[in-house]
Amino acid sequence: MTRRRGTPGDSPTTLALVSDVLRSLLETRSTLLADVERSSEERLLVRSDRSGTMQLYELQPGPGDLRRLTHLPDPVARAAYVSGSRSVVVEVDRDGDERHQLFILDLDQLPSAGARSREELTAITRDPRFGHHLAGVAPDGSALAFTSNRRNGVDFDLWIHEFASGSQRCLYDAGGWCQPASGFSPDGRWVSVLRPGPRPLDTDLLLVEVATGTVCPVLPHPEEAALVGAPAWVGPGRFWVASTVGRDFAAIVSAGTSAATPAEVVSEDSCADLDVLSSPAGHAAAVIANRDGASEVSVVVPGATEGGEGTLVQLPEPGVVLDYKMTPPRFSVDGQRLYFSLSTTRVAGDVWVFDRATSVTRRLTNSPAPVAPEELVAPELYRVASFDGEEIPLAVYRPERAATGLQPVVVFVHGGPESEATRSWNPVVQGLVAAGFGVVVPNVRGSTGYGKRYASLDDTTRRLDSVRDLAAVHAWLAGAGFDPRRAALWGGSYGGYMVLAGVAFQPELWAAGVDIVGISDLVTFLENTSDYRRSHRELEYGSLRRDRDFLAMASPLRSAEAIRAPLFVIHGRNDPRVPVSEAEQLVAILRSRGVRCELTVYEDEGHGLARLTNRLDAYPRALAFLRSVLRA
């Protein structure tokens, strides 16, 4: 069924239809890969939001039937099989507080309806004051690796949990915010973690020996900010990693556990970041290129095609198979099949498999989608020159039915800031287009995916240069058919900061803003964010001790007297990253000045809206807000 697109000024009936379209888009479900079982059965763990939050299911390739495993009150963040058993490790927080706990789910003892409470699971970690993150399961199923800040509430250390005894020991506690990498090496000797370095966009890869705690740094770069990614094991003591050491875009580099093993470049691309993963035994590897926000996947045989292009995995349309919301693709045990999630601008996300023997890509899940993909809009790609000649990449979504004259437009800014707007599913973007708005999605300076030079251009005291990029985007709007007088900003997290900075520092440009879990004051944000995040965030935004004056100057709250654009503000009460006080303090000032400002705080949410019921409440109201402000 073709749905009529709206334009500002439509009748109440048409407005209701437009709201219905947005609700249908928000009701679109996704199914994402979580893990592949290391057995001949080759079952898959997947996460799906069919119930309204991400819950865990099991998929048997072939019939494609999903067996529901959890019906918990909170979303499942991660999950992994325990080899040699019918057990699964599950990671869950509470009401978005990000203090995740780890549990064992016994699939042989599971009720037919799935586990409905934490009490039906066996707890591995039991202290809700601290966070715990799954970092891998040993290949023989004997142990679990996880990171946790339980030692001091700040540093995330690496821990080992022995399944047989239930004992736990800290394996690495040298400080820093260790994050999971690719888990255990195939022989179980090493566990990999990623640790932020001393500069922005700086990540170290550490291999930690399970038996001794010995640490092997990989591609150390003490004089340079660079990223070193998770190891993809391709042989005994040998692996491939993505690295920007000595280069702008990430290349694939061969390295080893011995310091005598020379590092050699396997594959590189002068205009795309590469990433890599391998099969359990290292017989195959997948190289993933990020090109203008879309993934290109090639499967290679490390011993036979080193340095070659491999076999290209055919995707049905441009999209992403790897981002912060997704578990990386997984090979089957024998390396013959590559399983992956795919999200595009028109399909929310489903699980696919690529068969190396036939070079055929096949879809394994079909998540409910009330609006057909062919009714949705794919973006056009542009570049816009900013104040200093730097080119800003844009993805532009145009309403299918052209309006008379210039169209109202929403500039949609991603979070991060060390992140990227990709060609993946965003129901709000498609809902805005259905409502008659053009949507412009920029990757302002500081975005990843365009080389580390570009990603560093907003660091610390250069923060406001990225805000100046918004002015360059605004200057481009009229020539692209959009009405610069009816231009709004929309963004979440760091994107929320950009919304507030735009309306505060460029009040003559922006007619409205929608701010979701955004930062209003960089000083109070850094003072009040969770202790474990502060030092890491100071690397990007600036130090409270050294850069306080600049942080204050770059804070929208300190220029709130200039804000005249109406704002719609959304926040989660339990947000551990950007405290809800960031929203409340700004709204209080704006309301005291008589500026229209609508604030909604969700008591069961954290950093963003994880629950469908809340998204169905918040986003249609935000859309109605924009229509009421921008119709004239």
Helix segment count? 10
Mean of residue pLDDT? Answer: 92
**Uncertain runs with pLDDT below 50, 5 residues or more?**
1-9
Q: In whole angstroms, how far apart are the ends?
A: 31 Å
The tally of beta strands, per DSSP, is 37
Class of the domain at 371-630 in CATH?
Alpha Beta
Overall spatial form: globular
Q: Assign the structural class, choosing from mainly alpha, mainly beta, alpha/beta, alpha+beta, or little secondary structure.
A: alpha+beta
**What amount of the residues lies in strands?**
25-35%
Helix content: 10-25%
- At CATH level 3, the topology of the domain at 371-630 is Rossmann fold
Q: Looking at this structure, what is the CATH superfamily of the domain at 371-630?
A: Alpha/Beta hydrolase fold, catalytic domain
Main beta-sheet strand count, sense and barrel state: 8 strands, mixed
Structural Rg:
24 Å
